[in-house]
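Team,

Forwarding the record for the chain on the shared tracking sheet. I've put the sequence and predicted structure together so nobody has to dig through attachments.
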Amino acid sequence: MSASSGRTTVVYFIFFSVAFIYLIRLFYIQVIDKSYELSANNNVLRLVIDYPSRGLIYDRNGKLLVYNEPVYDLMIIPKQAKGTDSVGLCKLIGISMEEYSDKFKKAKSYSPVKASIFEKQLSVTTYATFQEKLYKFPGFFVQPRTLRKYPDPMAAHLFGYIGEVDTATTRKNPYYRDGDYIGKSGIEQSYESVLRGQRGIRRVMVDVFNREKGSFQNGAYDTTAIAGESLTITLDAALQKYGEQLFANKVGAVVAIEPSTGEILACVSNPSYDPNLLVGRERTKNYAKLLFDPVKPLFNRALMAYYPPGSTFKLINDLIGEQEGVLFPSTSYYCDGGYHMGSQTVKCDARHGSIALETAIAHSCNTYHCYVFRSIVDQKKFKSAEEGYQAWRNHVLTFGIGKRLFSDLPQELKGNVPSVQYYDKYFGKGRWRSSTVVSLSIGQGELGITPLQMANTMCIIANKGYFYIPHIAKKVGNKSAVDKKFQEKNFTDVRSEYYDVVIRGMQSVVESGTAAGSKIKGITICGKTGTAQNPHGRDHSLFVGFAPMDNPKIAIGIMVENGGWGSDWAAPIASLMIEKYLNDSISRPELEKRMLNGVVSPKIYQDKRDVVKRDTIVKAAAIKVNTIRAIKY
C-alpha cells in the first residue's frame, strides 16, 4: 500500500468516526435523553412552580395563631396569548382594558416566551370560574400559592407581615426570584428561613385548548415542594389579647416576660391594626393608609419607642448606689419637698421628712434619689464628675439599657444612656457636674428606655442580678428552637445580696405606697410606678413589676402615653394582666371595667384634621413604600 492511500484511509476513518459519534449523540438527544425537549417544546410544556405552604404559628399553649389560605397567581406567556378573549378576561379578574394592555406590555418586555405574573392573588371563586373558561384564554394559566390568615386578629407588630422580594434581595440571595414572598418584619422576618419551606417545580404537558394533560415523563424532572416548619412561640395568646383589649383607646405598649426563661408572654403596642389588612390584593392600598395614618399604627412602640423611664429608674439608681458602697438600707436623707443644689431644685411630690431606702422606694421620693445619685458620682475616689458619671453609666449598661438586647425580634432599639462625650459637647468639657445631670436619677433628662427593656429590668430584679435575653421562639416543629444565647445568664455588675431591700421596697409600693390601688388578693406584687415628664402634653404613666414575690412567674413593663400618674393607668392595667396570667380570672370587675372602657386621648387621637390631607398624600405617593424610621418619645 502506498503512503498516499494509507493517508486516505486514515482520513476516511476519522471522517466516519466523527460522523458516527454525531449520529450516536443525535440518537441520544432525540430518543433517550428527553431533557432537551423541555426547551424545544415550550408550546406543549409548561413550567409550574409549586410554592410551599409557610409554616404555621402556634402560641405556647398550642393555639393556632397563623395559618395559610389558598390563592392563585394568573400567569402569562405573551407569545402564546394570541386569540385570547381579553374583554372576557378583564371582566373576570376585574381590571380595565388599559390595565390589561399595560400588564401585557410589561410581561412581553420581561420575556415573550417565558411565563410571568399577569395578576396576583386571585380568589378561589375567581380561580374556579377561570378554569371553566380556560379555553378562551390561550397563553394564560394559574399558579397556586398561599397567603397568611389570622383567625384571631392580634399581635400584628409581633407577627409582622410578608411581601414581595425586592431586587436587592434576589441579587444577594439566590434562593429568591422575582415574585417570591419574604418576611418583611416581626416573626415572619426573624424566622423566614424556618417558615418559608422549599419551592418545587413541575413540568406539565398542555394541549391546544390550554388544558393540563399530565406531568412530563411522569414527573422525572420535577422537584417536590417542602412545606415550612411550624413555629411554636412563647406568646400566651389569651394574655396578649387581654392586653390589647385593655389598651383600647390608649396609646403605648406593654411587655410581659417570664423571668426564669426570658420567654416573651405578651408584647402589646397600640395603636395597632388587623394583620389581615396586609394580606391579599388590597395589601398595598391598606399599607399606604396605615403608613400615613397620624396615629402611626405600624409603629411598634414596644420595641422601637424609647421613653424617659421616670421613677421606675430609681430602682437601678439605688442598686448602683449599694454596689458602689455609698447606699445602705439604713441610709437616710431629709426631704423638705425637693432636692436643692445652689439655685437648682428638683421638686418632690411631698415633704417626706427623714426617710430610709425602703420607704423612699415605696413613696417614690425624688429628693432621696437625687442624693443617692450625687453620692455615687461625687465620690472622692473619682478625679472628676466625668469619671464618676462614667462609672455610674457603666453600671446602667449592664442592665441592658442603652444597648440592644439582641432578642429574636427585629427592629429592637437600644434606648439611650447619654455618654460623657455627649455632655462634654453639650455643656463643655469640665463645665458640668452631678447636679447638672441629676435629673437622670429620677429617670428624666436624656434617658430613653423601651418597654421591652423595662420588662427586662424587672426580670433582673426578680432573678436578683441576671436575665435571659428576651425571645419569642419556643419550638420549631417538635424540636426546641431556643438558641444557645437565649439559655445563657447575663449578669449585671450589682451583687445579688443588694436586691433584697429593693424588692422589699417594691413590695411596699403595691401594699401601701404609690400603687396601693392595684393590690391583688392572694398575689404579692413587687412593683414601681413612674410618671415621665412629657414636653408635648400630659405626662406618661408607667409601671414595672413582677409577681409573685417568691418564685416570680411574670415580669412586666408598661407605658401609657399621656396617662398621668403611674397609678392612674399603668399600674392597674399591669395588675390586671398579672392576675389574668396567674389566676386565669379577674377578681376586681369594677377595676377591669374602668380600664377596658377608659379613654386616654393623646393629641394624635383627637386630631383628625389631617384625614383628607392624608388621603391626598396617599394617592400622590403612588403607593411608594418607605421604611418606617424609629421615632423618639
